[in-house]
């Protein structure tokens, strides 16, 4: 396994799978930490599709591009202590990056997007009763529809850090018979001890039945490999 990114936003990927300039990476839920995506692009020159409806995520992406243009690390958000250390020596190819300003869900829709209780935090959620009662409306869509819009027939790596929406997204992905080679998922319902119906355990079983092996579990940040 090799670590890509910060302690907070990074992921462990298998050394046995080598991404390249033709590879397609969907990274959903980017917030204010795209260290994983930057380092993965630097190593492989893969095509990175950042998916996040959060306004601050879009602002952060623009700030990161400006950082590489000017060398001046000015970020307006809640930046991790090890963020600059991880990304400062990178030379990412932003021609291979796309920012998709929608949320991932099981279908195309417009849904309530609940804000965090602490305004310092960036993470929002589509799941009611997870954070605050304050919300805004955002456009959401399924992986299948995004792939169709982008003209993609496969995904080499899918990363989901989407604050509880992973259950609905993964269920629909398996129904649609979409099987990324590498699957990285933060299981937020289990992580936050609000998975009262064991939906996390159920979807993990479905993922394994679909031909995946869990090769890493770092505090419910799980990496699966299609075998």
Protein model, in words:
It is a single chain. This protein has helices at 35-44, 55-70, 83-87, 143-150, 166-175, 188-191, 199-209; strands spanning 2-4, 11-13, 24-28, 47-51, 97-100, 103-104, 109-114, 135-141, 157-160, 182-186, 212-218, 221-226. It has one domain (2-226): Rossmann fold (3-Layer(aba) Sandwich), CATH 3.40.50. The chain is of the alpha/beta class. The strands form 3 sheets. The protein has a 7-stranded mixed beta sheet with strand order 5-4-3-9-10-12-11, with helices on one face. The chain has a 3-stranded mixed beta sheet with strand order 6-8-7. The chain is built from 7 helices and 12 strands. The model has no long low-confidence stretch (mean pLDDT 96).
List keywords for this structure.
227 residues, alpha/beta, 12 strands, 25% strand, globular
Summed up:
This protein is of the alpha/beta class. It has seven helices and twelve strands.
Oligomer: single chain
Which parts are unreliable, with pLDDT below 50 for 5 consecutive residues or more? none
Number of strands: 12
Question: What is the CATH H-level superfamily?
Answer: Vaccinia Virus protein VP39
Q: Spatial order of the strands in the main sheet? A: 5-4-3-9-10-12-11
CATH topology: Rossmann fold
- Please tally the helical runs, counting DSSP H or I stretches of 4 or more residues: 7
CATH architecture, by name, is: 3-Layer(aba) Sandwich
Name the CATH class. Alpha Beta
Strand content is 25-35%
Structural class: alpha/beta
Whole-angstrom Rg? 17 Å
The ordered string of helix (H) and strand (E) elements is EEEHEHHEEEEHEHEHHEE
| Distance linking N and C termini | 16 Å
Shape: globular
Mean of the pLDDT scores? 96
Helical content stands at 25-40%
Total count of domains: 1
**Quick one: biggest sheet?**
7 strands, mixed
């Amino acid at each position: 396994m090799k670590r890509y990114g910060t302690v907070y936003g990074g992921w462990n990927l298998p050394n046995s799978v080598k991404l390249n300039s033709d590879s397609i990476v969907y990274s959903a839920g980017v917030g204010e930490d795209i260290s994983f995506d930057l380092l993965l692009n630097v190593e492989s020159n893969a095509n990175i599709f950042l998916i996040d409806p959060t306004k601050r995520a879009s602002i952060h992406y623009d700030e990161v591009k400006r950082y590489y243009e000017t060398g001046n690390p000015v970020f307006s958000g809640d930046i991790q202590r090890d963020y600059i250390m991880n990304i400062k020596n990178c030379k990412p190819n932003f021609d291979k990056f796309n920012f998709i300003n929608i949320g991932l869900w099981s279908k195309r829709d417009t849904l309530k997007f609940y804000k965090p209780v602490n305004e310092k935090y960036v993470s929002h959620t589509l799941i009611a009763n997870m954070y605050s009662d304050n919300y805004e409306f955002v456009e959401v869509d399924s992986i299948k529809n995004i792939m169709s819009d982008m003209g993609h027939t496969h995904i080499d790596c899918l990363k989901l850090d989407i604050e509880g929406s992973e259950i609905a997204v993964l269920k629909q992905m398996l129904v649609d018979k979409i099987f990324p080679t590498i699957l990285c998922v933060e299981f937020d319902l289990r992580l936050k001890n609000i998975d009262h119906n064991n939906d996390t355990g159920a979807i993990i079983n479905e993922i394994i039945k679909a031909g995946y092996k869990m090769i890493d579990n770092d505090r419910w940040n799980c990496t699966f490999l299609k075998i």
